[in-house]
Amino acid sequence: MTIGVSPPRLEAGDKATGRARYIDDIRLPGMLHAALVTSPHAHAKILGYRLDAARAIPGVKAIVTGEDLKGPRSGGIIKDESMIARQRVRYVGEILAAVAAVDGETARRAAEAIEITYEPLPSVLSIDAALASDAPLLHEEQANYIKTVPSGGHDNVVFESSVEEGDVERAFRECDVVVEGIWDTQAQHHLYLETNGCVADVNTAGRITLFATCQSVHHIQQRIAEELGEPMAKIRVVATRVGGGFGGKHASNIHSIAAWLARQARRPVKLTLSRMQDFEIQRSRHPARIWLKTGARRDGTILARDAKIILDGGAYTDESPAVLAFALLMVRGPYRIANARARGQVVYTNKLRAGSFRGFGNPQASFAAESQLDELAAKLDLDPVELRLKNAMRPGDTAFGGEVVRSCVLTECLTRVREAQRRAAPLPPRPDRKRGLGYAVMSHVSGLMGTAANVQLRTDGSIALATGCVDLGQGSDTVMVQICADALAVPIERVSYAPQDTDSSPYNWKTAGSRSTYMTGRAVAVATVEMRDKMLEHASEMLECAVSDLELRPGGAIGIKGVPKAIGFKEIAMRSLYQAGGPIAASHGFVFDGPGFDPKRASIHRLAFANLGVYTFGAHCVEVDVDEATGAVEVRRAWCAHDAGRAINPVSCEGQIQGGFVQGMGYALTEAMHWDDQGWLTSVTLADYKIPGVLDTPPEINAIVLEDPDPSHPVGAKGIGEPSLVGAAPAIANAICNATGARVRQLPMIPERVLDAIEWR
Amino acid sequence: MDYVAPQTVEEAWRALEAEDARCLAGGQSLVAMMNLGLVAPSRLVSLRRIASLRGVATEDDGSLRIGAMTTHAELAALDTAECGPAVLAQAARVVAYPAVRAFGTIGGSVAHADPAADYPVALVAADAVIEVASATGTHRIAARDFFHGLFETALKPGEIVTAIVVPRGPKSGRAIYEKLSLVAGDFAIISVAAVVAETATIAIGSCGPKPLLACGLPLEPGALREAAAKLAAASDPPSDHRGSAAYRRKVLPELVCRAVRAATS
Amino acid sequence: MSNKLAIELNVNGEPHDVLATAATPLLDALRTGLGLTGSKRGCNHGVCGACTVLLDGKLARSCLTLAVDVGERPVTTIEGISQNGTLSPVQRALLDAGAIQCGFCTPGFVMALTELFAREPAPDREQIRAALSGNLCRCSGYVKIIEAAERLAAAHAGEHQ
Hints:
The complex is a heterotrimer.
Chain A: H1 12-17, E1 32-38, E2 44-50, H2 52-55, E3 60-65, E4 88-89, E5 95-101, H3 104-113, E6 115-120, H4 127-131, E7 157-165, H5 168-173, E8 177-185, E9 197-202, E10 208-212, H6 217-228, E11 235-239, H7 255-265, E12 269-272, H8 275-281, E13 288-296, E14 302-312, H9 320-331, E15 339-347, H10 362-380, H11 384-391, H12 410-423, E16 434-444, E17 447-448, E18 450-457, E19 463-467, H13 476-488, E20 495-497, H14 516-543, E21 550-553, E22 557-560, E23 566-568, H15 569-578, E24 585-591, E25 602-605, E26 612-613, E27 616-626, E28 633-643, H16 650-669, E29 700-706, H17 723-740, H18 751-760
Chain B: E1 2-4, H1 9-16, E2 21-24, H2 30-35, E3 43-46, E4 56-58, E5 64-67, H3 72-76, H4 83-93, H5 98-103, H6 106-112, H7 119-125, E6 129-134, E7 137-142, H8 143-146, E8 147-149, E9 152-153, E10 160-166, E11 174-180, E12 190-196, E13 200-205, E14 212-217, H9 221-234, H10 245-264
Parallel strand pairs in B: 1-3, 2-3
Antiparallel strand pairs in B: 4-5, 5-10, 6-7, 6-10, 8-9, 11-12, 12-13, 13-14
Helix pairs in contact in B: 4-7, 9-10
Chain C: E1 5-11, E2 14-20, H1 26-33, E3 52-55, E4 58-61, E5 75-76, H2 89-96, H3 106-119, H4 125-131, H5 143-159
Antiparallel strand pairs in C: 1-2, 3-4, 3-5
Helix pairs in contact in C: 2-5
């Protein structure tokens, strides 16, 4: 059995020795280096470019600016971007021009020699400024943009949507207790250790090969094709080892530029971002303002929840409508609240685009929702865990939007962490510190969009597996191999796994949304079983018996039940190649096919997702120490229980839970991107942007993996990547309140904010 | 940019005569600034090979003379009962990270004078003296007069910090260095160095362009808090993303009281 | 035009010649000059620790070390840690504990743990955390990295009984 065990990751040895190849490790003969010119203005018309000084520098081989673009706008859900800024810049850091030269220094000098003249325009740098009636508009042509989903956009509003069930207004009137509040969350940066980059090469026929640290080779290929005006057959994208993604590398910002330069120069071009550039150019998490109101009866039954969410989307749409969708779907929480309404907007501002980031709207929504739940408990004079247990979803209940959730272990997750904390030896108190305990629950999904898997039997009976799922470090390569090997009862060494390459990998939407183990893993399982069935057919002919008489034998053989006689996979392969049937292979692809939302139950307006599901549940319990004189918060211990459906690689599940929790701690306590009043990002180095280090992280983050198998997956697996980040901030906020009585409603909860809340309690 | 590695301070002075020449000590601040494009010296004068800049020795009056090229790691390992050097050793232990402490030097840190750095605060509390040498001679400047502002010191062009001399401090005195930071290893939001005998000498860091100093503070908790509050009210801390000026003023008195309490317990 | 200097470096026990300017960090000399791409650039200003090497046996940020200033002091990089393709005990421990996710920080952590275990065969948790305090990881939350080090420390302690 290769499921439920934790073999070392396939590529861990190469990572441990420094042999693993990341994008900046790639060097091709004749390779040029790219340098970028980025906007110093938050909002400006581009009046003109002077390139002659740059062109005159020896060693400069290609230059591209927005003047070279002719095609329509590109982008994801709303096509409001282009490969490089055209006619207007909309945020400080937006790429205006790119140079490829024989070395990095020459490229930088040439970039500095490019003169661009601007007419600065008034800018908007906040949600309020963007929504003001006289606000300057970022996208005047908005109505003409191609939209893959109707947007409801107008002025600086990119997108509007809502989800509603029941009758909130009536329900609030029936409540004995109502709480209301506003929460503000900040822009967080993914801070993958490896900055974004790519290497583009072009062959004699003009076909482009692009190596990239990315979350989807297929998506990058699609965007390059769109932006260069080439058919996808002329573009090949190959994934290198990825040094972290977390959503920040899901889309294309720099790839088409590198491809364009390579095509112009007829030489390979490397374009890698420095840490400063990565902060300024890529994407952030959406800052959010959430107004939330929750009402309950005296006995703790929650009757109604009403939310308004505004996301600050930055200068371009990116995945904002989808992030909004998630925030709206998750803000009700995993509770049986019959009357709930969530309305939301995304606004344009002259800042870095906000886009996908682990949690995808759920961290923002849950920070408000789970914090307010504790406030409700306090007002009802009920224990916060008991209040949650009383209202928690159970199997057969519906998620917000009406999808029936057949498997739900939320109450188990919550009682497990409570029990674990109670059983643990108490930590001795510290002088000058108040101890607090806080809880939060969360729900997320594991299934969306499309994927496929290809599997083949080799001549020697070993197996070749290929998917389009890029491993960002979460361990999907190993998990896919484990699933495949398990279906054939062979050790994992018998299965090879192909790198992701659009020339040979089957389609996968993206490594995102905690979907890889459920979606691609399901495709792998089904394809492998299909191939196994073909092998059984062969074996039945070779052994002259019925297929129903056969069984898989561990180690790569098929035999007759109750009889030692068996034939090895190699023999079956040989027969197929030389005698009958032909090479044995199978493929399975599907697009998420869950039950979907229920329009009889929920009124859904313009949700950017057609269908998503396979809900997972989790609960966190956190102990903190708060220094009431300075507001400093230290997380002492945490228990994080999450349902993985079926833990294919339990150690990898734990690693994801622990890593997500710590990334959530950074979101909760120390991380924030700051812009000044000119729209310049001021936190552009690791000296300013602080993520938790070893000494900031509790030594004890107890990852508890529950298994409540999903029936739609052949081995029951669900996703685990995002939920643990979601619960960290509200659990910590609740623990701070438990310790001090102070409620902090703004992230990050730096010492000053906590101290202010303490003084205001 | 050119690079020279003199063997003596005399050679170093001559090398520094070039325009826009800078000393390279441990490189932990200078090279970071070069990598970020903040400085681009025309000449780097490495002090690494100059033996006279190394070593820690006790002077006749019991003061510790610390060569400018002594690393934070070497100072952190100082096992001393004297409160002057002790406050310095404590500061050395919390500078940045192990790799930075392995190569960063006290001379480099002192000459750099980042208001959020740890050494200047400890040196001011300990009433240390900075020994500075140039082609025209050697002289000593009190730490309390040395740090002028953001990256500004009393150093004149052509002068090199050659040693830091730390007096023993009051007999049976106790010393402590504490810092409040957002994450471990970060620059301080606010830091406190306290040398405590019959009264307390307090230096505060990250509360202005140079360390704040208050001498002769009473030890009685109520009076100390009052004195610290006056110090806070008179201070001019920065506002940045780590905390506002108001916040720094607010927490200063409590941190001073805690430091003195820790030193005397 | 920056003038390139011919620099001699002793890397992983072998002498190497590399061309670099006075401003070239050791990290670049290793990665570009010598093709030793195991040391990673995560920030280029000395905070993340992905570039960590051993310089004269001490932990050093190769992005903050100028190649020209290294001199005769020996440099050890991640490429010098495993012997003949066999993982060192530190590397093995990280692998076995499931402490490696995206792997970009891993070479830096290997160097930091190697330096720790060289001077302290059975460090306790505090010593381990202090030794790793200058290395950032965004994937793991550090828990399994610490566990790997604790297991190795326990194995060493067991050996000496």
